[in-house]
Structure formats: structure tokens, C-alpha cells
Design brief:
- By secondary structure, this protein is an alpha/beta fold.
- It has 17 helices and 13 strands.
- The chain has helices spanning 20-28, 33-40, 69-76, 99-109, 125-129, 131-135, 140-153, 169-182, 199-216, 227-233, 251-256, 261-267, 272-275, 278-281, 302-309, 331-337, 342-351, and strands at 5-16, 43-54, 58-62, 84-89, 92-93, 110-113, 187-191, 219-224, 236-241, 244-249, 295-297, 316-321, 324-330.
- The radius of gyration is 23 Å and the shape is globular.
- The termini are far apart.
């Protein structure tokens, strides 16, 4: 059953400049980003964005620098106001909120994890973790138990009385995540949250986020420029280019069926075996004459199945979900899924 829509973005435009409403008319008539800047001296931030963010899922918004992804996430809590369009949270029109309603949204319903950690240097780890509740008027004794619980959960037990400068970058970002969890906000906004971290620490943080999400089922909006990170984290993937949505949907479906040459180019160097899951290439259950070489999970990646099969393309595997037979993976279908699209193959050929 489809999950409820937590945040709905409709017909959203953002234009930066002295007369955005005038520039908007040119954009609606088809003027592009480069033309708008050259002819009208305005910057097109977002053009006609339509995205539904579902309750309890990780929606990843990705794109290269200048694509509009950070601009978009800042519209959700109205750190930036749109030139035109609608934003609804839990069915409520955020654009109609009073100042008090907006403060309540930012303090209690949405938390934000920043790329640069945004910790207060003069406060301890414990105090930083409880900052959202501190702003609401709670005392340290009110939030201390929760702060200690979540600091321990993100691996920082025993560091409560240290200061940010005494922590590594990865540890500081863990404080940022703990702070978001202590706030009890059902929505987490994460703007390039792991981009400043070293690759190994970054991978650990991704694993931690997925582990926590498995327990808490928050609604998470995650911004990144890294496709590997997006494919690892996303339940729903939105790819932006020049302020527009190029393609959105199940990341597995996008990888198998890219809908634009830009996406083809983006995914051309991806290790498909490591990213694609069994559920994306399996067939309906086959209990007939098939002989199964073993059982695998629908969540397994294709790389693990290749190792299990020892490269034998004649094998079939029974696919399980919660110990129930939900599909059959034929190794020939797995092999077919690993072949890049024609456009991607042409790109590699030209590069050679």
C-alpha cells in the first residue's frame, strides 16, 4: 500500500533578481537558464518543480553544483520563499503560515542536518544535541536523558562533556544527527550532510542513517551530488539539472530505464552489480520445472549473487521476502541487467 504524502511540492518556481515576477513570465514562455541570465540578468533557481515526498521514506534530491537542489530543500521550511508555487506539509499550505506557525514548523516538525555541522563551539556535545529543545524553552535536565540516549545510539557515549573542537569531523556530524533525533521532529532535512567527510567515514554515516531509518521511519529529504550515495540511500530519487527535474522515481527503475541522455551520462560509470538489487530483475515465482541453486533475498545486490553463483549463468535462485517465495532470479536476466544502455556504451566507445 502506498504511503501517505508528507510533503507535496507543486509548480514551484524560484528566480533570483530584482524583478523575479517579470522574469517568471519569460521562464513560463520557455526561456532557459542561460538566456534568462544573459538577457534579463536574473538567475533561474527552480523551474516548475512537482515532487511528492512520502511519509517514512528517504527522498534523495541530487544533481551537480548549480542544479538547484540546495535551493529546493530550503523552500521546505521557507528559509527561501518561492517566486511561484505551492508547498504543503501534512496537507497544510506552508505559504499561508503566520510567523508563529513557521517557527513551530522549524522547531518541532522539521530538523536540519547541515554539511558544515553547525555546532555551537561554546556548548558541550550534550548541549548541542539538545539545542532544538533548548530553543523551545526546555532545560538541560529536561532533555538530558534523550540527548544521552541518542548520543549513545550514534556511537558517542562518553563524549557528552566534550566540545566540538575536540571531535573529529565524523564525530561532529554524529552530534548533528543526534541533535535532529533529540528534537523529535518527524521530518529530517539533510543538506549535503556527509559531503565533507572522508570516504570511509562517509560510508559509515550512510550505514548509520539507514540503520536508524529502519527503526524510526522518519521522512528524510537528503541532498547530494554523489550518485553512489543517492542510489544507496534513496527510496525515491529526484534528479535535477539547471533547476528542473530531469527524472524521478524508484532509483532502481531509473538505473534500468534512464529517461534522458543526461541520466544515461550520469549512470554510465556506475558499478551496476553493486547497486542493482534482486527485486529489480527477478521474475514472478517459478515453482514449475525450475531447479533452484539456493535462496536469496530480494534486497541482495547482484554482486553478491554473482559470487554465490560462481559465475554460472545457467543457475536459477529462489527469491525470498520475509521467508516467503516472491520471485525467481534467472542468472541470464542478471547478466542482461548488467549490460549498459546503448547510449552509455556509445559514450564509453567514444571515450576510448
Amino acid at each position: 500500500m502506498a504511503k501517505d504524502i508528507k510533503i507535496s511540492i507543486r509548480n514551484l518556481y524560484k528566480i533570483f533578481g530584482p524583478n523575479p515576477e517579470v522574469a517568471l513570465e519569460y521562464v513560463r514562455r520557455g526561456m532557459g537558464k542561460a538566456e534568462l541570465l544573459e538577457q534579463q540578468k536574473h538567475v533561474l533557481g527552480l523551474r516548475d518543480i512537482n515532487v511528492d515526498i512520502h511519509d517514512g521514506e528517504i527522498t534523495v534530491i541530487m544533481g551537480l553544483s548549480g542544479s538547484g537542489k540546495s535551493t529546493l530543500i530550503r523552500h521546505l521550511n521557507r528559509l527561501i520563499d518561492p517566486t511561484a508555487g505551492e508547498i504543503h506539509v501534512d496537507g497544510e499550505d506552508v505559504m499561508s503560515y503566520t510567523g508563529e506557525q513557521l517557527r513551530q514548523l522549524r522547531r518541532e516538525r522539521m530538523s536540519m542536518v547541515f554539511q558544515k555541522f553547525a555546532l555551537l563551539p561554546h556548548k558541550t556535545v550534550l548541549e548541542n544535541a539538545g539545542m532544538a529543545k533548548d530553543i523551545r524553552g526546555y532545560t538541560t535536565s529536561d532533555f538530558e536523558a534523550d540527548a544521552r540516549k541518542w548520543l549513545a545510539r550514534v556511537g558517542l557515549e562518553g563524549n557528552e562533556h566534550q566540545y566540538p573542537h575536540q571531535l573529529s569531523g565524523g564525530m561532529q556530524q554524529r552530534v548533528g544527527i543526534a541533535r535532529a533525533l533529540v528534537s523529535d521532529a518527524p521530518i529530517m532535512l539533510m543538506d549535503e550532510a556527509f559531503s565533507a567527510l572522508d570516504p570511509l567515514i562517509r560510508s559509515d554515516m550512510q550505514d548509520l542513517l539507514l540503520e536508524l531509518q529502519g527503526e524510526l521511519q522518519k521522512t528524510i529529504v537528503f541532498i547530494t551530488h554523489d550518485l553512489d550515495e543517492a542510489l544507496k540511500l534513496a527510496d525515491h530519487l529526484v534528479i535535477l539539472k539547471d533547476g528542473e527535474v530531469v527524472q524521478q522515481g524508484d532509483p532502481q527503475e531509473i538505473l534500468l530505464n534512464p529517461g534522458d541522455p543526461y541520466i544515461v551520462d550520469f549512470i554510465s560509470d556506475i558499478n551496476r552489480a553493486r547497486v542493482l538489487r534482486v527485486r529489480s530483475v527477478m521474475s514472478p515465482p517459478d515453482d514449475g520445472d525450475s531447479e533452484f541453486a539456493g535462496d536469496i533475498s530480494e534486497k541482495d545486490n547482484l554482486e553478491s549473487v554473482l559470487l554465490k553463483s560462481e559465475g554460472d549463468m545457467s543457475l536459477n535462485f529462489r527469491v525470498l521476502r520475509d521467508n516467503k517465495h516472491v520471485g525467481t532470479l534467472h542468472m541470464k536476466d542478471l547478466a542482461r541487467a548488467l549490460v549498459p544502455t546503448a547510449a552509455s556504451a556509445d559514450r564509453s566507445k567514444n571515450a576510448a
